[in-house]
């Protein structure tokens, strides 16, 4: 009797091997808390990897976005421009600080923020005499946004750039790592991201003072006095020394994970090259995605929809997921101002994320491809 096929997950954690040693050191020294050698080491190693002067290790990517907005001085009554095609964790922190998101659509060449829609929105706001406090730019599925065009616009209007690189650690634009283009960059180490700390995030900046302020806010904004003295409202957002230990082990294998993710993508493209109805998230010249998730779209007019494909995969014990449902469609955000031409709606209606674990075996990938091929044949 044949064994039932094991379940294939979308993007499960993949340990490198050294993580437990770092965690063991934390146990040996009894530093089980939100400070210690692993937190310091992880921050230094992340800063060295991304070639910035400083990084702050935090409890999640969401917390990092929250602190990044505070560090940029965003507050009640302000507007923040944000990619509409994203996960809700990008927009929620804008509301945490009492500001209002203005949602900007994607363009088809990267699936990320459209520079023309951005310019339209900025022109509109300039006419109204209220420019946004920041642009929160998302690099979706690891693909760099059109940074040159976008920065040209934001610099012309004097709007600070905050990069949500939660999905894009290890991705590059013109050979420079994502997260290091804006005034602040944010990463996530959630369990499904390219590397994980079991849950965590980080904030990086070329400005060490900004990072220092974020660390201070992340530890209840305690003033430098022997007793508990506070001049500002802080948070409990620091990464633990245990999580940071996992992160140090994961950083050692990050570049290998990027290569593996890209190989997973190339393999799908190869295995499914004869399925004419399928297209892939494009990667323009000079763009280098970590291919966090391998994402496809079905061609316009295709007789199948992605939900049918998702259900067929699920029947075969394979997890796949729709693309992000745009924020301007969410009950939570549909009343926000939105600038665009429906590109993200179109991508959502035709797209699917395939299992993209770096621990996926060639046989697993063939299994996935076979189900997709049979679905199209059937
Ligand atoms: C995962 C993710 C986040 C949030 O990160 P957490 O560590 O899960 O809080 C933010 N933005 C995007 C685009 C993400 O994919």
Walk me through what this model shows:
This protein has about 375 residues and is an alpha/beta fold. The chain has two domains: about 240 residues, Aspartate Aminotransferase, domain 2 (3-Layer(aba) Sandwich), CATH 3.40.640; about 120 residues, Alpha-Beta Complex (Aspartate Aminotransferase, domain 1). It is built from twelve helices and 14 strands. The strands form three sheets. It has an eight-stranded mixed β-sheet with strand order 1-9-8-5-4-2-3-13, sandwiched between helices. A three-stranded antiparallel β-sheet has the order 7-6-11, with no helix packed on it. Strands 10-12-14 form a three-stranded antiparallel β-sheet. α6 links the parallel β4 and β5. The longest helix is centred in the C-terminal third of the chain and has 18 residues. It is globular and about 70 Å long. It starts with 18 loop residues before the first helix and ends with a helix. Pfam families: DegT_DnrJ_EryC1. This is Aminotransferase class I/II-fold pyridoxal phosphate-dependent enzyme. Keywords: Aminotransferase, Pyridoxal phosphate, Transferase. One of its GO terms (biological process) is polysaccharide biosynthetic process. Belongs to the DegT/DnrJ/EryC1 family.
């Amino acid at each position: 009797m044949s064994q039932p096929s094991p379940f294939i997950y979308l993007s499960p954690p993949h340990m490198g091997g050294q993580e437990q040693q770092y965690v063991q050191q934390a146990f040996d020294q009894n530093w089980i808390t939100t400070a210690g050698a692993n937190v310091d080491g992880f921050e230094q190693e992340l800063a060295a990897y991304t070639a910035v002067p400083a990084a702050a290790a935090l409890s999640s990517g969401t917390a990092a976005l929250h602190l990044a907005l505070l560090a940029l001085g965003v507050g009640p009554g302000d507007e923040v421009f944000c990619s509409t095609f994203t996960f809700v964790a990008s927009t929620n922190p804008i509301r945490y600080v009492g500001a209002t998101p203005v949602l900007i659509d994607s363009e088809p060449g990267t699936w990320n923020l459209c520079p023309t829609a951005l310019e339209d929105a900025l022109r509109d706001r300039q006419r109204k005499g209220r420019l946004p406090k920041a642009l929160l730019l998302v690099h979706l599925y690891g693909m760099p946004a059109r940074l040159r065009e976008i920065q040209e616009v934001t610099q012309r209007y004097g709007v600070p750039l905050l990069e949500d690189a939660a999905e894009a650690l290890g991705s590059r634009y013109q050979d420079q790592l994502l997260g290091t283009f804006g005034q602040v960059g944010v990463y996530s180490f959630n369990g499904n991201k390219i590397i994980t700390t079991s849950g965590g995030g980080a904030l990086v900046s070329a400005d060490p003072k900004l990072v220092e302020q974020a660390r201070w806010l992340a530890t209840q904004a305690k003033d430098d006095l022997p007793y508990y003295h506070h001049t500002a409202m802080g948070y409990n957002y620091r990464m633990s020394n245990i999580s940071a230990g996992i992160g140090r082990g994961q950083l050692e294998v990050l570049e290998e994970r990027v290569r593996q993710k890209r190989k997973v993508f190339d393999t799908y493209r190869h295995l499914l090259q004869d399925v004419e109805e399928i297209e892939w998230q494009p990667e323009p010249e000079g763009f280098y995605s970590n291919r966090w998730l391998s994402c496809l779209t079905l061609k316009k007019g295709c007789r199948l929809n992605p939900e049918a494909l998702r259900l067929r995969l699920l029947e075969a014990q394979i997890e796949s997921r729709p693309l992000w449902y745009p924020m301007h469609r969410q009950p939570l955000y549909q009343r926000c101002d939105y600038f665009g031409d429906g590109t993200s709606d179109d991508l959502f209606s035709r797209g699917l994320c395939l299992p993209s674990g770096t621990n996926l075996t060639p046989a697993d990938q063939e299994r996935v491809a076979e189900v997709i091929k049979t679905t199209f044949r059937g």
